[in-house]
Amino acid sequence: MEKQHYTFDLSQGVDIPHHNWLKLDRHYFNLEKDLYIANVYLPPSGSSIFRWYNVDACDMLELDIARYSKLGNIVVCGDLNARVGNLDDFVINDDKGHIPVPKTYDVDSFSVKRHTQDSLCYNEYGRWLIDLCISAKLAILNGRCLGDLRGIFTSHQTEGSSVVDYNIVSKDFFQRVKTFSVLSLTDFSDHCPLCLNTNVQRSLVAQSTEVNLYPLAPRYIWDETSRDKLLYHLSLPETNQKLIHFMSEEYSGCPGGVDSAIDDFETVLKNTVGRCIKRKVIKPKGRFYKRYVFDEKCYKIRTQLHYIRGH
Fold first, then answer.
1. What are the beta bridge partners of residue 138?
2. Is residue 5 scored above 70 in pLDDT?
3. 133: three-class secondary structure by DSSP
C-alpha cells in the first residue's frame, strides 16, 4: 500500500470493537470525494455483550457516519442484525415547494424502490437503520441493484432465513455501483458473503512522480591494511573537527531529529571511508544477459553489432 493514498482510521476512543473504517483517497481513485468504508458487526438486540462494554454500538456507528459524511461518501457493509422488511429508506414524495422549510433544506430525490424476500416483518434495529439511512442520506443496496434485484436472504438459521447483512452507500455514490450480489453459503458461516462491484479505479494521472527511495549501502574492499588506514584517517584533525561538530550539535528526540543525527553521522563516515578504502563496483555478469534477457539468435546479433561498432 502507498501511505499517501491509503489511510486506515480505527475509531478512536471506542471501547467496543464492532466496526472500523478504511479511507480511499479521491485523487488516487479518481473520485469526486474521499470514500470511507466501514466494516460493521452489530450484536443482536439484548445481547449480553452490551453488559461488558459501557457504550452503545449503534450510537457509535451513527456518530462515525455523521463525522465521515462531512468528509466524503460512505460505504457500510456487514452484519447489522437489522430486519428492515419493506420499509423505505428515503422520504417518499419529498418536496419543499408547498411546505415552509428552510431554503437550505435538501430534498430527498432518491426514489429507487427496493425488493426483499424478508418482507414479513422488521425489528428494532431495522427501524433504527431506516431512520439512519434517511437522516444520513444512505441507500441500502440489497434488493435494488443488478445482481440482487429480489433482495435474497443473507442469513440462514435453524429458526428460518432473513436479510440482516447489508451493503449501504451514500446516495451520491449510488451511481458508481455496478453490481451487488449475495453469494452462496460457504462451509465457514451461516451468513452468505456479499459482493459489491463499483466503478472505482486508480487514477491514470500520477499525483507525484517523486518517490522517496533509500540508496543502497556502498560496498568496500576490505583487506589487511584497511583497518590501519581507517584509524589513521579518523585521527586526522579534519575528521576530528567534523566529529566534534557532530557531538556538539543538538538533535531533538522526535523521529525527525533522530533521522538528522543518523544522516550527519553517516556523512562523516562515508567521507572518511571513501578517502582510504576502495569501493567495490558490482558489474552484471555477461552470461546473465545471455541467459535471461536474450534468446540465442538475438544474442548473436547483439555480439555482431558490438563487433562492428568496435571496428
1. 170
2. no
3. helix
Q: What CATH number is associated with residue 50?
A: 3.60.10.10
| Termini Cα distance of the chain | 51
* Cell representation of residue 121: 416483518
Instruction: State the Cα–Cα distance between residues 89 and 250, nearest whole angstrom.
Output: 61
Q: How many CB atoms lie within 10 A of CB 203?
A: 14
Looking only at the bridges linking them, the beta strands covering 138-140 and 155-157 are unpaired
pLDDT reported for residue 263: 87
What pLDDT, in 10s, does the model give residues 105-133? 677 778 888 999 998 888 999 999 999 99
**Band of residue 103 on the pLDDT scale cut at 50, 70, 90:** low
pLDDT at 38: 93
**Residues 220, 184 contacting (CB under 8 angstroms):** no
Based on its alpha-carbon atoms, the radius of gyration of the chain, rounded to whole angstroms, reads 32
- pLDDT value of residue 110: 83
Grid coordinates of 187: 462451509
Instruction: Residue 199: name the closest of 170, 179, 176 by CA.
Output: 176
Residue 210 belongs to a domain: no
Q: Which domain holds residue 155?
A: 6-198
In a shared domain, residues 128 and 263: no
Considering the domain architecture, whether residues 126 and 253 belong to the same structural domain is answered as no
